Amino acid sequence: MSDIYIICVEDEPHVLDVVLRDLSSLEEVFPIELAHSADEARQLISEIKEEGNKIGLAICDHIMPGDKGVDLMIEMQKESFTQDTRKVLLTGQAGLEETIQAVNNAKLNRYISKPWKPKELLDVAIDELTTYVIEHEKELLPFMSVLDQERLQEAIRSKGYV
Fold first, then answer.
1. I want to staple 9 with a disulfide (CB 3.0 to 4.6 A). Which of 60, 74, 93, 134 is the partner?
2. SS3 assignment, position 108
3. How many CB atoms lie within 10 A of CB 34?
């Protein structure tokens, strides 16, 4: 079975540490990879693809040196490998226009303002990853320990699995 990764793209190391801390309970099932820029993220995406794995969730800062987070997410939406990846934009600065662009062009699933409450990011990640595995995985039981059990059980029942 291939791994389903979470990638986090953030140029500020202390913010990346907070993201990692908030998501650490998911790491036993979903390996977490970190990138400090859109270019690093592209390299990471390429490596994950080459290894035959998937990316279930991308959490990306908006304002970074080089390409903005929205630009990376729009690119991801155009690539078949990352089109279905659940996409979350983190920002303290995006204007309304950029947010609208992200939602419309990158098929952004969520937008989280900085600073967020510790449980908020984890709740969003669990919700988005639950949606991803229900839509893309045949076997849902391996995800019960960290994702939304009620939604997974409902999906198992509705798909006719016992």
1. 60
2. coil
3. 17
Mean pLDDT value across residues 37-42: 96
- The model's pTM is 0.93
Burial class (CB in 10 A: 0-12, 13-18, 19+), 157: exposed
How many whole angstroms separate alpha carbon 111 and alpha carbon 94?
10
Q: Residue 65's pLDDT band (boundaries 50, 70, 90)? A: confident
Residue pair 12/65 in contact by the 8 Å Cβ criterion: no
Class in CATH terms, 4-158: alpha beta
CA contacts within 13 A on the Cβ side of 72: 32
Q: Which amino acid is at 126?
A: I
Residue 104, judged by CB atoms within 10 A of its CB (0-12, 13-18, 19+), counts as: exposed
* pLDDT tens, residue by residue, 106-150: 678 888 888 898 899 999 999 999 999 999 999 999 999 999 999
CB-based contact 68:90 (threshold 8 Å): no
DSSP 69-90: HHHHHHHHHHSTTTTTSEEEEE
Cα dihedral across residues 32, 34, 38, 44: positive or negative = negative
